[in-house]
Amino acid sequence: MSILASRLSAIKPSPTIAVTTKANELRAAGQDVIGLGAGEPDFDTPDTIKAAAKAAMDRGETKYTPVAGTMALRKAIVEKFKADNGLTYTPEQITVGCGGKQVLYNAIMATVEPGDEVIIPAPYWVSYPDITLLAGGTPVVVACPEETGFKLRAEDLEAAITPKTKWVILNSPNNPTGAAYTADELKALTDVLMRHPHVWVMSDDMYEHLVYDGFVFATPAQVEPGLFDRTLTCNGVSKAYSMTGWRVGYAGGPIELIKAINKIQSQSSTHTSSISQAAALEALTGPQDCIPERNAVFKQRRDMVVGLLNACPGISCRTPEGAFYVYPSCAGVIGKTAPDGRKIETDGDFVTALLELQNVACVQGEAFGLSPYFRISYATSNENLEKACARIKALCESLT
Ligand code: PLP
Q: pTM for this one?
């Protein structure tokens, strides 16, 4: 008999991590592979943040903290929510976890029971369905086609809600498409949710600060205060401050839910590292100039990549509002044949051909629930991006 629990069979390892692993293996074997799979900024953590972590160590902040996070950090998060989002929480309504991922995981574990449905607009971040499945819940995936900017439409949300719906997860700017909802677009969705008082909202605002061309970020509890008491507003420092390895995410929500999240956390990680919490405190309260500086670089890369991809025969790429991903369609190459005789039937075949024939690693749209597309992370150097796009073009031109 297997030692493994049956719940494991419901889930799969992260496909985005799998692509990065494969690219690393090929690189180790001497291949000149360009990885466009990474979900993290290529910039380093700002020096002021590192210095705050070192100072915390030197002060002896090396012991357990409260499960929900240090009071200083939670107060800084309260201020952040007030200043950036117009949301008024108390420190008791804030929880801090090991990355945004653990906060979402804790929230789903604390609330979702077998039979409960979680509405997940697709394309989605790969972890939402699997965490839901791990909790015994049922992901209800709602397609958001490119024609609607990869955004959920009010009528599709309405149609997906059943008496069993527990949560709808909204993610703006979105991983993998970079699509972001304006306040008006969110209001259309929150109007639907106001008619269904049993549905809770999990807003994953992880890419809040990564928006371009003057886009104004909005979050559901802000555009519809009537939803405040059933919204978990999730965020973190990983992407905005290039702190993916520090593992700090946080959320604000109703006290009963936050207490439940803390209860789960108290029996798993206890809390994220005390040093990382000191670093996150500096990220939120210290100088913010790294954000516009880095966004200027991301915007320039986004525009370059979109231009280069749209010059590839068979590929078409929408300009996204935020994050550091583009989600081009590869519909125009489906059904074609590569020089080695392989047929491109799916976006999975296309990214496999890209990796094997052109040494470019990206992730197939199938992993994010909407095909035929693929995700490119442009959080890498201009040189890499130019080279990678030239290789993508070479593959596309070689298909017959
Ligand atoms: N939410 C989204 C949409 C993400 O893309 C990610 C990371 O890729 C996370 C949450 C989790 O971030 P963290 O590294 O803080 O766990």
A: 0.97
